[in-house]
Design brief:
With 80 residues, the protein is an alpha+beta fold. Helix content is 56%, strand content 15%. The protein has helices spanning 3-22, 47-71; strands at 30-35, 41-46. The chain has a two-stranded antiparallel sheet with strand order 1-2. The longest helix has 25 residues, at 47-71. The termini are close together.
Length: 80
């Protein structure tokens, strides 16, 4: 992964974290986190789950894309 793409991804994660921190006071204490097949809410979670899941998934995906090229065999090398 090129450095500029990695830094752009980190900037997006930082932006999401910053916006979450900015609107933290407006977020409800309980937020719906799961819906059943009928569209009814069947699980609530705390607002911390929003902070940990959203940016956490973004950061995890970014790190995965950064590490996977090092783990792949040479014959699967993708040209830059």
């Amino acid at each position: 992964m090129k450095t500029r793409y990695f830094l752009a991804g980190l900037a997006l994660v930082a932006l999401v974290l910053g916006l979450t921190a900015f609107y933290w006071g407006d977020l409800p204490e309980r937020v719906p986190v799961h819906w059943n097949a009928a569209g009814a809410i069947d699980r609530y979670g705390s607002r911390w789950e929003l902070v940990l899941f959203g940016p956490g998934m973004m950061l995890g995906t970014l790190l995965l894309f950064a590490v996977l090229p090092w783990l792949s065999p040479r014959r699967f090398k993708v040209e830059d």
